[in-house]
C-alpha cells in the first residue's frame, strides 16, 4: 500500500490554566447533576504527564512511514513538539462545523470532526496520547492490501445484557453497536482493543451523511454523555466490518491502568511489556491514585523515557 498515512491525536493539558477555567465555567453553567454527563471524578482522564510527546516519539521510532502528525487541541502544544516539522496543531475551531458549541471537553464530540482536518490523508491512524507503539509496525498491520482498515477485537463480549451502571465508554460503544445491528443487520460481539484506530476519511464522512442528527448532537455536548456516538472508534470499526470493508485482526496489545497499585508489576524491567512482547500498549488512568500519585507519575515518566528516548 503506497498511499500516505497520517496520524491524529486529540489532546488536552490539564495544567493549562485557561483550559481549567473553561472546564470549570462549563461545569458551573451546566451543573454536574444534569442527567447523563460524566462526573468531574473522571478528571484523571485529562492528567498530563507529557504522554503525547512520548507517544509521538514511539511513532517516529516504530512507524517511520507516518507522513505527518496532527494534534487536535484547544491547549498550547508542549514545547518539545510545538515547532517540530512533522507535527501540526489543529484548533477545535478549524474542524467544528458549528463553532458556537465551543468550547467542548467531550472526546466523542471532538473525534466526530477528525475527517474535517485540512490536508489530512484519506487513510490515517487515530491515537489517544496514552497509546504507544512498543515494537516496529508496518502499514499492513493497520490496513489491508485493498486499503481496508484493520479492526482489533478483544476476547471480551459487548455488555449487551449488563445491568446499569455502565461507563460512558460502554454506553457509547453500545450505541454504535445497536445502530449497526438495527440498520445493517450485523451485531458486533466483541469490544475493541485500546490501540491505534485505522480510519478512512471517506468512511467517516459516509457515516456522518447517514446519521447527521446523531453526529451533530454528539458534537454539541460539552462533556461525555451516555447518548454519544463514538464516530471515530467503535462506530467506524463496526460499520466498516458490517459493510465488508474491514478485516478483523489480532494485535499484541497491553492495557495498563496506572491508577491500579499493582501496575508496577506490569512495567517492571523484566515484564513482558519491557521485553518487547507487545506491539502496542495503553497506559490509562481509570482511577485516580490517592496515595503516592507523585511517585507513580515519576515511575511512568521514567518508563516512557527508557522506552522511547
Automatic annotation (TrEMBL):
Source species of the chain: Halioglobus japonicus
Any Gene Ontology biological process: polysaccharide biosynthetic process
The family this protein is said to belong to: Belongs to the stealth family.
Protein name, as recorded: Capsular polysaccharide phosphotransferase SacB
A single MF term (Gene Ontology): transferase activity, transferring phosphorus-containing groups
Stealth protein CR1 conserved region domain segment(s): 4-20
Alphabetical list of Pfam families matching this protein: Stealth_CR1, Stealth_CR2, Stealth_CR3
Domain Stealth protein CR2 conserved region: 45-148
Top-level division of the source organism's lineage: Bacteria
Keywords tagged on the record: Exopolysaccharide synthesis, Transferase
Ranges that cross the membrane: none
